[in-house]
Amino acid sequence: MSNARYRAFIAVAHHGSLSAAARALGVSQPTISTQIATLERQSQIELFHRRGYRMTLTGAGARLLSMAQKIMALEAEAEFFLRDSGQLHQGELKIGAVGPFHVIEMVAAYRARHPGMQLSIRMGNSQQVLADLERYDTDVAVLAGLYDRPELLAREYARHAIVLFAHVAHPFARRSEIALSELQGQPLLLREHGSTTRTALESVLQAAGVQPRTELEIGSREAIREAVARGLGLGAVSEAEFIPDPRFRPLRIAGDPASTTTYVYCMRERSDSLLVRSFLEAI
């Protein structure tokens, strides 16, 4: 079966309409429509639900999507190998990440080894980044925290203590370190549920029986910084992600009881692929 039909199928599945898929692939809408119709007619399986111009995958379509993405990933691997004799002088590596800090240094290391390769970075939250990896939209993913799934292979990259930061007018700002117990009753600004920083810090607080005031939940690092700047409480962040600012003073927690770990993920079945292996070796 023509790989062009798989490309059309994947594009419609991702973009939700024939017209959007055609624009993404740079072909005409009738071409996409014919490829999808041929795929369904030959297989005698309905792959999409049609609701006006919108198209969503059926159960059978969702199963095919995973297989089609694997086929396209293998095709790309074969092209890399045949074109460059396994040297990766040209091509594209797609990276998913939840934040810029570590992924930029990884990109620099990779470019030093493979200057001819193009790299793209797709940012999102943990769920989005993992979903992109599992759909083969990205080749590798950079995430804080360990996700123990049989289909994923994780490699530890770095571990960093969680530090606090206070407004310069806060009483703690005159110090460089506080005990975990001193957070009792203190206003502590938290990220949304699912944040690895929040999960790690809450775990050690609960184990120590320390209860800060946590009435305010904020969904981004930037908003946390602004809230601290307005004196609404203490912020918490991975040491690697703390950005110096004259408005703030960083505070270590004595003994560094809480930390986050950054991992690089790939699909287990792709761990031996030329593209993925080249990235893991470079970093």
From TrEMBL:
GO molecular function: DNA-binding transcription factor activity; transcription cis-regulatory region binding
Name of the protein this chain belongs to: Transcriptional regulator, MarR family
Family matches, as InterPro entries: LysR_HTH_N, LysR_subst-bd, WH-like_DNA-bd_sf, WH_DNA-bd_sf
Annotated family: Belongs to the LysR transcriptional regulatory family.
Keywords of this entry: DNA-binding, Transcription, Transcription regulation
Entry annotated with the keyword Transcription regulation: yes
Organism name: Delftia acidovorans (strain DSM 14801 / SPH-1)
Pfam families attached to this UniProt entry: HTH_1, LysR_substrate
